[in-house]
Amino acid sequence: MEDSSSKLSSSRLVYDGVALRIEFYVAPSGAAPAEAWLEQLPLIGQQKFAALFARMGDTGKIWNERKFKHLTETDQIFEFKVEADRILCFFFVGRRLIVTHGFRKAGDKTPKREIDRAEACKKDFEGRVKHES
Predict the structure, then answer these.
(1) How is the chain split into domains, by residue range?
(2) What are phi and psi of 61, to 5 degrees?
(3) I want to staple 19 with a disulfide (CB 3.0 to 4.6 A). Which of 60, 61, 71, 129 is the partner?
(4) What is the pLDDT of residue 5?
(5) How far is CA 133 from the centre of its chain?
(6) 83: nearest Cα among 67, 70, 100, 101
(7) Residue pLDDT, tens place only, 82-107
C-alpha cells in the first residue's frame, strides 16, 4: 500500500497573497529549478524577484511589461523580469501562479529552449496535479 505522505508534491509555496498563490514548480525528482536558480543570485536580485512575487500575489497583476509580461506564441507562459534575469511561469486554476525556472537572458528574444522548458514543466505539472486530487 502506498503511503500518501511519501508522494512528492508538484509545487511548493513561495508567497500566499490576497489575489494569487505564487508557487515553485517541483519536478518529479524533487528539484525546484526556480528556487535553486534564485538561491544562486546575489541577494539584491533575490529581493527584487521577491518584491515582484509579493506585488503579483497581493494585486493579481503587474502592469509594467518591463517587470512581467506574456510571452507571445507560447502556451500561456509569462516571465518575471529583473534586468537580464528572467523567471518563467504560468497561471493555474485556483488563483495559482506556478514559477518554473530562471535564466539570464543574453539577447533580445527569450530563447526557444527556455520557453520549451517552461511548457514542459507546465505539461508535467498539470498532469501530476490531476493525479494528486
Answers:
(1) 9-132
(2) -160, 155
(3) 60
(4) 35
(5) 21
(6) 67
(7) 999 999 999 999 999 999 999 999 98
Place of cell 527584487: 48
In angstroms, the CA 93 to CA 105 distance is 29
Cα–Cα distance measured from residue 93 to residue 97, given in angstroms and rounded to the nearest whole number: 9
Tally of CB atoms within 10 A around 12: 13
Cβ burial, residue 107 (10 Å; 0-12/13-18/19+): exposed
Dihedral sign of CA atoms 44, 50, 55, 61 in order: positive
DSSP codes, 79-118: EEEETTEEEEEEEETTTEEEEEEEEE--SSSPPHHHHHHH
Domain 9-132: CATH architecture, name and number where available: 2-Layer Sandwich (3.30)
